[in-house]
Amino acid sequence: MDLKQIAQAKRSREYAVNMRPVLKRSALFSDESANYRNPFEPEIGDRVTIKFRTWMDNVDYVFFICGSHKEPMKKAYKEGVFDYYTYTTEPLTEPIHYFFEIRTGNQRCFYNSLGVSENLQEYNSFGIVPGFKTPDWAKGAIMYQIYTDRFYKGDTTNDVEDREYIYIGEGVRKVTDWKRPPEPMDVRDFYGGDIQGIWDKLDYLQDLGVEVLYLNPIFVSPSNHKYDSQDYDYIDPHLGVIVEDGGECLAEGDDDNSHATKYIQRVVNKKNLEASNEFFAAFVAEVHRRGMKIILDGVFNHCGSFNKWLDRERLYEQVEGYEKGAYISKDSPYRSFFKFNYEHGWPYNEYYDGWWGHDTLPKLCYEQSQELEDYILYIARKWLEPPFCVDGWRLDVAADLGFSEEYNHEFWRKFRKVVKETNPDALILAEHYGNANAWLQGDQWDTLMNYDAFMEPVTWFLTGMEKHSDEYREDMYGNAEAFKNAMMHHMANFYAPSLQTAMNELSNHDHSRFLTRTGHKVGRVQDLGSDAASEGVNKGVFREAVVIQMTWVGAPTIYYGDEAGLCGFTDPDNRRTFPWGEEDHSLLSFYKEAICIRRENPVLTHGSTRFLALDYQFLSYGRFSEQDQIVVVINNDKEEKEINIPVWEAGVPREAFMERLMLTLENGFSLGREVYHVKKGILYLKVPPICSMILRRI
Question: DSSP string spanning 339-380?
Answer without folding.
Answer: -BS-TT--SS---B-BGGG-TTSBBP-GGG-HHHHHHHHHHH
